[in-house]
Design goal:
single chain, alpha+beta, PmbA/TldD fold, 2 domains, six-stranded antiparallel beta sheet, five-stranded mixed barrel, 9 helices, 19 strands, TldD/PmbA family protein
């Protein structure tokens, strides 16, 4: 795999070729990665895979016409042809008055902050195999576990570089590690499955594989002999593992392109109080070792910590340059892109803060409700905010977790759900979107 300097040279060289060939402006992104993945099942090695790849993408502008082209072949002659084809495509493209590079005056300047995203490690397959086996063995050792879908461990490194014709060039490298297990409990038609996993930028930040495996086994056994749920309105608690999906819908609703197209359920909510005043949603791209940390965005703008929701109030949209121009606003440093296509937007490390009390406190006054541990289906309308998803979890009776329940649907509207949302204080920073246990009252449940 190339070094950061070599990766940056690839992107910079392609931009220079485009400008010499007649482009009015251009940018290029280069990415490469190498990863090793080990899979085991029932204590035996099932698969070891090693993947390495590199890709480069070029975007050229002729006035307000643009085109994007990409390749995984780094042959110099082919890349020269890539420039020529990109310019030919741009000449035939329709004009777009919002197209263009990010404003030059907003580009990142100075020394990049250290986000500590790369530990430089490269564990061998034998070490990953031992980690995967330890995880699965711990899951299978939980009383009640009867079979396994397998366990795994992975390690990899990647580099992302971007260069623009108006003065920005930078690269970042990151490492990544993961461990997981998925097992079954019960027999016959009464089988249940569950899993657990953990990801980290630094290998030293991964919990012990045995801890993850034991959690996977215990989660699975708890789901045995699920009952049914009667239909009606009731309080719903969301386990942190699934509660982050609610914030994911918020992020989709505040993307600049959705606002510009007027296809968001939050279209008229800028500056409005849409969450409880105790809650804030924070985007923190500069968190050291964060899973989605980045010092610059995919258009060369600096990133910074921001409150997307500040004490309940929606503060703004996440915008790349094109949607910002369409809305008459300033891009926010949230641009994200691969090697093909124009930039979109993406948040970084997101968390919800402001919760208080334990999860037990949050459910103490619930006579009957449900604690959700799994969601299924994609029944979310991002235009209206209507929400309906299949779910499984545990019944809450008189403030206590009772038996497992499954095969029911929860429904509501995201705007109402956000206003009703309450949070515990059990926030952990272990995912890209982190939330504590969440409670939403008055959701409709369709069960037996």
């Amino acid at each position: 795999m190339l070094s950061k300097n070599e990766a940056l040279e690839r992107a910079t060289s392609l931009v220079e070729k485009a400008m010499k060939a007649g482009a009015d402006a251009a940018d290029a992104v280069y990415s490469c990665d190498a990863s090793t993945d080990v899979q085991v099942r029932l204590g035996l090695l099932e698969d070891v895979s090693r993947n390495e790849g590199e890709d480069i993408g070029l975007r050229v502008f002729l006035g307000q016409k643009s085109a994007t082209i990409s390749s995984s072949n780094m042959n110099p002659d082919l890349l020269a042809g890539l420039v020529s084809r990109a310019l030919d495509m741009a000449r035939e493209a329709p004009e777009d008055k919002y197209a263009g590079l990010a404003p030059e005056e907003l580009l990142f300047k100075g020394e990049l902050p250290d986000i500590d995203s790369d530990d430089g490690g490269d564990p061998d397959p034998a070490a990953l195999k031992e980690r995967a086996l330890a995880c699965e063995d711990a899951a299978r050792a939980v009383p009640g576990v009867t079979n396994s879908e397998g366990g795994g461990a992975s390690a990899g490194r990647s580099i992302f570089a971007i260069a623009t014709s108006h003065g920005f060039a930078a690269a970042n490298s990151s490492s990544g590690y993961g461990v997981h297990a998925s097992v079954l409990a019960g027999t016959g038609e009464g089988k249940e499955r569950d899993y657990d996993y953990r990801s980290a930028r630094h290998e030293s930040d991964l919990p012990a594989a045995e801890t993850i495996g034991k959690s996977a086994g215990e989660r699975t056994v708890k789901r045995l002999n699920p009952g049914s749920v009667k239909s009606g309105a009731m309080p719903i608690l969301f386990d942190p593992r699934v509660g982050g999906s609610l914030i994911g819908h918020l992020l989709g609703g505040i993307s600049g392109s959705s606002i510009a197209r007027r296809t968001s359920f939050l279209l008229e909510q800028l500056g409005a109080t849409i969450f409880d005043s105790s809650l804030s949603v924070i985007d923190d791209p500069l968190r050291p070792r964060g899973l989605n940390s980045r010092a610059f965005d995919a258009e060369g703008l600096p990133t910074q910590r921001s409150a997307l929701i500040d004490k309940g109030v929606l503060t703004g949209w996440m915008m790349e340059a094109a949607s910002a121009r369409q809305l008459g606003l300033t891009p926010t440093g949230h641009a994200a892109r691969g090697v093909s296509g124009a930039p979109g937007v993406s948040a970084s490390n997101v968390h919800l803060e402001g919760g208080s009390g334990s999860a037990a406190d949050l459910m103490a006054d619930i006579k009957q409700g449900i604690y959700i541990t799994e969601l299924s289906g994609q029944g979310v309308n991002m235009v209206t905010g209507d929400y309906s998803r299949g779910a499984a979890g545990f019944l809450i009776l008189d403030g206590e977790i009772a038996g497992a329940v499954s095969e029911f649907t929860i429904a509501g509207n995201l705007k109402n759900m956000f206003r009703q949302m309450r949070a515990a204080s059990d926030l952990e920073f272990i995912r890209s979107v982190n939330v504590p246990t969440l409670r939403i009252d008055g959701m409709m449940v369709a069960g037996a």
